[in-house]
């Protein structure tokens, strides 16, 4: 079992930055690929990015490439999502998720555990 708790969301002006954190419980955190997803009001959940268990590989959705960076600290059981140059269209609830069984990293069904989400609101 892995429990995930996101934090760091809030209200920011366009062009601003935020760093989200996702703290995980459980001794096997380092074995999971970790992903970030988001869901805006009235829209389907979408993939934002993912990071391999070692942190050696990262993957991003095209609209966030160059603006978002995922990192992890396995010693702290934490994964981060650094967001810069935020846009109003980035407004959403952001979720972190843990994928222990493989499957496409960009698909939500590949992930076994999910956090409760943290709201990010970008004002224009």
Characterise the protein shown here.
- The protein is mainly β and 124 residues long.
- It is 0% helix and 48% strand.
- The protein is built from no helices and 11 strands.
- The strands form 2 sheets. Strands 2, 4, 5, 6, 9, 10 and 11 form a 7-stranded mixed beta sheet that branches.
- Strand 5 and strand 6 form a beta hairpin.
- The radius of gyration is 13 Å and the shape is globular.
Please state the overall shape, judged from the principal axes of the Cα atoms. Answer: globular
Order of helices and strands: EEEEEEEEEEE
- Measured on Cα atoms, how large is the radius of gyration? 13 Å
Enumerate how many helices there are, as a single number.
0
| Class of secondary structure makeup | mainly beta
From the structure above, extract its key features.
mainly beta, seven-stranded mixed beta sheet
In short:
The chain is 0% helix and 48% strand. It contains no helices and 11 strands.
Topology record:
Elements: E1 4-7, E2 10-13, E3 18-24, E4 33-39, E5 46-51, E6 58-60, E7 68-73, E8 78-83, E9 92-99, E10 113-114, E11 118-123
């Amino acid at each position: 079992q892995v429990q995930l708790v996101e934090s760091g969301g809030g209200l920011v002006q366009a062009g601003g930055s935020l760093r989200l954190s996702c703290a995980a419980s459980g001794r096997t955190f380092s074995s999971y690929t970790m992903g970030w997803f988001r869901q805006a009001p009235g829209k389907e959940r979408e993939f934002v990015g993912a990071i391999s268990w070692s942190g050696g590989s990262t993957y991003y959705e095209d609209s966030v490439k160059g603006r978002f960076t995922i990192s992890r600290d396995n010693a702290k059981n934490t994964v981060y999502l650094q967001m810069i140059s935020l846009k109003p269209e980035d407004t959403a609830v952001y979720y972190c998720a843990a994928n222990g069984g493989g499957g496409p990293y960009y698909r939500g069904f590949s992930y076994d555990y999910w956090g409760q989400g943290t709201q990010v609101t970008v004002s224009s």
